[in-house]
Amino acid sequence: MQREGSALHGLGVVILKELSDHLTSTRMRVLEWLIVVVGILAVYGAIQQIKDTTAEDPFLFLKLFTTSRESVPFTFVSLLSILVPLVSIGMAFDSVNGEHNRRTLSRILSQPIYRDALLFGKFLAGLFTLSVSLIALWLLVIGLGLVLLGLPPNGEELARAFIFLLVTIAYADVWLPLAMLFSIIFRSPATVALVSLGLWFLTLIWPMLAPAIVIAFAPSSSEETLILASQYFQRLSPSTLFGEVVVAILNPTTRSLGPMYLSQLQGAVLGAPMPLGESLIIAWPQIVGLIASTILLFVTGYVIFQRQEVRA
Questions:
Q1: C or N: which end of the chain has fewer Cβ atoms within 10 Å?
Q2: How far apart are alpha carbons 199 and 136 in whole angstroms?
Q3: Is residue 292 part of a domain?
Q4: Contact (Cβ atoms closer than 8 angstroms) between residue 184 and residue 123
């Protein structure tokens, strides 16, 4: 039967309904407060460490995100790298199969709402909720830095911090369609949660596994080849891509995210900060990788969802 009207008819209704569910759910509040509380601890530890080691640094404000105290074993960036995927998975692991199990999917699709609008609306609502939460956390960190450090960020620091916020949203956005994809494939939310959390844990240990895998498949290669292959293999993990972007953006002295060659050091002053534009060029392949992963996962889930049979 030929469609009548736009495939995205009813998109706004789906987005508002999903936003209401996300913003009022106990699950989302618990996840948000977990990140806020642990994030404040990490930032407070960073502020105390910065005060104890005050030095002439034109990018002192950026150390809020990358510095930790001995009593706090993680930085704000490492905290986000671990917890942001959990929030995305927690939001989307029952986004589609939950409708199946409640027997509401056929009722929704019997209305003038196409599958395109339903899936895209769930994705956009999740993205908006994640964005609002991360923006609020980012503003909280900036506010704590202003109050407790007593130093306002300069223009470039604020720009780098804002780009870091956008990259964090893109990183969270990779895990959202991943959980939605598994929610389409598996009917059991528990199975989706286990598979998604298993992949999340795999990304945490992937930097240790990748070199061993490369050596196992190419034991006779030269050391330089093994290092390059291992580095590219590690970038299959979104956590690795996120970490490399953070290094390039929040550490202005970073000149390369791979092995350094003499040609890259010619005319360079070691320790001199890079302009923001050049830091973006260094991190651009990783940023594109995060965005491309999101699109690939969403399109895969979209194709599978379109081919699934929906029964009343």
A1: N
A2: 27
A3: yes
A4: no
Tokens 């502020």 belong to residue? 47
Whether residue 221 is contained in a domain is answered as yes
Distances (CA, A) of 148 to 75, 131, 181, 198: 17, 26, 43, 39
| 104, 192 Cβ separation under 8 angstroms | no
Is 55 within the bounds of a domain?
yes
Is residue 2, in this structure, part of any structural domain at all?
Answer: no
pLDDT tens for the 312 residues of the chain, in order: 445 556 566 788 888 888 888 888 888 788 778 888 877 777 777 777 776 665 556 677 888 888 776 666 678 888 888 889 998 998 888 888 887 777 777 777 777 777 788 888 889 999 999 898 889 888 888 888 888 777 788 888 889 999 999 999 999 999 999 999 999 999 888 899 999 999 999 988 888 888 888 887 777 667 677 777 778 888 888 998 998 899 889 888 887 776 544 344 344 444 577 888 888 998 899 999 999 999 999 999 999 988 877 665
> What is the SS3 assignment for 47?
helix
Distance of CA 84 to CAs 39, 80, 81, 120, Å? 11, 5, 6, 21
d(CA 261, CA 268): 12
Query: Domain tally for the chain?
Result: 1
Q: Could you tell me which residues come within 8 angstroms of residue 205 by beta carbon, excluding any fewer than 6 positions away?
A: none
Q: Are 276 and 159 in contact (CB under 8 A)?
A: yes
- Please provide the distance, in angstroms rounded to a whole number, between the alpha carbons at the two ends of the chain: 19
